[in-house]
Amino acid sequence: MAKSFKFISPGIFINEIDNSELPALPEEMGPVIIGRTERGPGMRPVKVNSFSEFVQIFGNPIPGGRSGDVWRDGNYLAPTYAAYAAQAYLRNSNAVTMVRLLGAQSSNATSAGKAGWDTDATNTTSNATNGGAYGLFVWPSGSRPAADRYEMTGALAAVWYLNEGSIVLSGTLRDCAVDGTGGTITTGSAALIRSLSSNTPSPTTDVAGAVANEFYAIITDADGNIKKQTAFNFTPSSNRYIRKVFNTNPTLTTDAVTSTAQRKTYWLGGSFERHLAKYATGSSAGQAWGAILGIASASTTAVYASNFRMGFQAAQTPWLVSQDLQTSYADYDITDTNRVKKLFKFHTLDGSGEDEMKKLKISIADIKVSPNDEDPYGSFSVEVRDARDNDLAPVVVERYSSVNLNPNSSKYIARVIGDQYLTWDDVERRHKVFGNYLNASKYIRVEVNSDVDAGATDARYLPFGSYGPLRPNSWSYVSASSPTNPDASGQNNWVFGGTKIAGTQHVVGAVQAFLNVSGNIGEHLDGCAASLKAVYPAIPLRVSASDGGVPNPKDAYFGIDSTQASNNRFEDSYGDMLYPQPADGDSFNKTGATEYSYLFSLDELSSSAHTTANPNGLGVGVAVYTSGSRRAGLSYTAISGTYTEILDEGYNRFTVPLHGGFNGLNIRQKEPFNNTDLADGTDVGNYGHYSVRRAIDAIADPEVAEYNLMALPGIWDEPLTAHMIEVCEARGDSLAVVDLKTGFYAETENTNSVSANLGSVSTAVTNLRNRKLNSSYGCAYYPWVQIRDTISNALLWAPPSIVALGTFSSAQKKSELWFAPAGFTRGGLTEGSAGLPVIQTRERLTSRNRDDLYEANINPIATFPSEGIVIFGQKTLQVTPSALDRINVRRLMIFVKKEISRMATTILFDQNVQATWDRFLNKVNPFLRSVQARLGLTDFKVVLDETTTTPELIDRNILYAKIFLKPARAIEFIALDFVITNTGASFED
After folding, report:
1. CATH 3.40.50.11780-classified regions of the chain
2. What top-level class would CATH report for the domain 31-104+664-678+685-888?
3. What is the largest CA-CA distance in the chain?
4. Which residue has the higher pLDDT, 20 or 879?
């Protein structure tokens, strides 16, 4: 005490000591929930503390049943049960750990065990009529020039995926007439067919009112039967718009989940409206030529581009590159790494692939040179933006201001945003962490060039542009019978990557020219010279700072433009241009079969006022982007001789896309993790089984994720649910809430009638007994229930694990977690105990049903006339009679063990002496008294003395204590005797 005061002269000294401060409470654990969500990081645990935070990261729950353009919009056909489970629990608690399921595949996966999707096609180079991927290539019309050669550059306009059969165009062949319109009417692929006009009928139907770039297609099955024939175009407002007249739902090609009446043999994949408009801009009908060609993969094998059997991968931006520091510009080349340096790129967080790349884009803004000589590093800001916004009204989701490329700075880009990522080790069954800086962003991480990270690059470097996403190489067809282009072989030639390839096979890189009854393009151009070039899709770039009506042109972002050509509305084909390369290709590393879809740099901005009269063109007009303008000496930086000029002009921002992300799911299934496919699966032979088991293993280690419940809503595959229980039992600190195989199938898993999908008590009881489970670390409920989505107001059937989790949450909020989450007080689902509105049960249980279920350790969800729907049991899956065969006792023990273990960690590595023992006892005894006072225990005793921690144990550095507990039991049976007596009887007897 004397140390607190300075005693010199006599007096009274007062000090205040506050010993009432409460110790910090540990974070609430809550359940871990494994399953599909709308979006978000995948295959790793992410903790959320509210439903609003859950929605921000993982999206809203999906009730299923929504059709529409499944290819573009994603799978909204099947419910995301895991999201509803999170919503139910978070209604009354504030902690859930989510593991989003994506399609992963074992490192030893068989062909059947690979993730992703493909078609049922079994094509070979000699068989062009048995499915695969087919593309429509469109060229603009034009008369033959003086050189007597048709020279046309066209574009890939759309891709169809066929399980069988083929797709052909029907119309007028192009011939050697000046305008090419003198050919005959025919039907076929690999032939140049004229687009329709108002007075040109197809062979089978009138197509009056045709618009620009409108064609007539016929799809047949393997036997030649017509499955679809229609006119189509690329005008969204038209009734014959391509995405209105063709099937865009891949699940309709899967027999197991589609009725015969609805079944399709094909689906339409990407269509590239804005890309097409760049190359075929006819203002009226009849001004374009199209050809259907088979699309090969990135290699020259017969594996077609309908093979996307591969595991999930995060989306990336292309590499962002520096300015050119050299003053010479005549040999400028943005891909020359000796003068333009790759600086960094962004990745979506682990697993968040397709969804985030379609919803987000990245902008670099406020690029500034260093303001002083002491620090040569400039700065810039990183903006994560909504992909659907426009530069007139940017929607910034996250912003990181004034970051730099100085590895020693607190504003170093990797330090501010984060660069850590996970890789999965199949041998050790765990994630390994790489990177130096914790991720601060909810959506992205940054990958910095190793030279930049080492401080080995010029400090003046700033992000100035980027490479574009990769696409298949452009290709050309050159006819051989031309005096202006003689060819000794006399054969038609595909020209690919600058090299002519002669022969009849016509398999060149990304293009497969199918030979069928209509022959190939060359046969219909023989005798008239032609040079056809086709370009694969690329995201358009902003051309002028004035585009889009931005009030101040210097607020415009150059780089990619995700809006429509004529307005600021979102371009719906944007997401189609982000899709990854097929399974045997590479989405992120350039190969001989791919090219950059664009190369952009602020170094190639010039002034719109640059004219002969105004050769400098600086300080007036608005900036425009022209590829090649620096090399030509016309750009701001070329004219001024310094990269700072364009920044001084105020043009200091640009945007890049995320691309190449893939969820690894089978898009042909409504529910990619359906129980039918999971049945009897193995890690190497079934990607769904492997993915779920890996997700469970990812959170098996208590030091990776803390939780006290585990749920896998909607998946009742027995080996996987058994693995859940094994993990919970091995940890000793969580309870698995499992769904059972009951004979019930969600409508997204088969085409059976409703009556065939009901399931039964006897099936549930028999299947569970046959499993011979005996564990207090698992519990199960029956039957499924109907819930109402509080956001969309939709009704859906949900597995019982969802409402069980919600009831656990509400019960511990109303009372304590060691009170039984059952009965009319805490288990009333009609009264809101589930956290979600419960409308009805799939089966109304009788008293005998409830007895059968409870005897088998299945907790009934019963319906009563007055009380409504109630959880009417609280057994674990332990068969051996003990206190632990009840959920409330198991949850009590999980809680007590976890809290006391936390207290024990506070004395770890302290001296093994009586004073330390007393400290431990002084924490444990008050805690257990508190649990007893709150009706969790009827009595307890803690023994920690020389009888437990003996001198021998002390010498071995061990402290050993015994904790005796008497759990409070729940009342499950009430017996009341009502005795009727004679009038003269005395109640005192």
Report:
1. 31-104+664-678+685-888
2. alpha beta
3. 130
4. 879
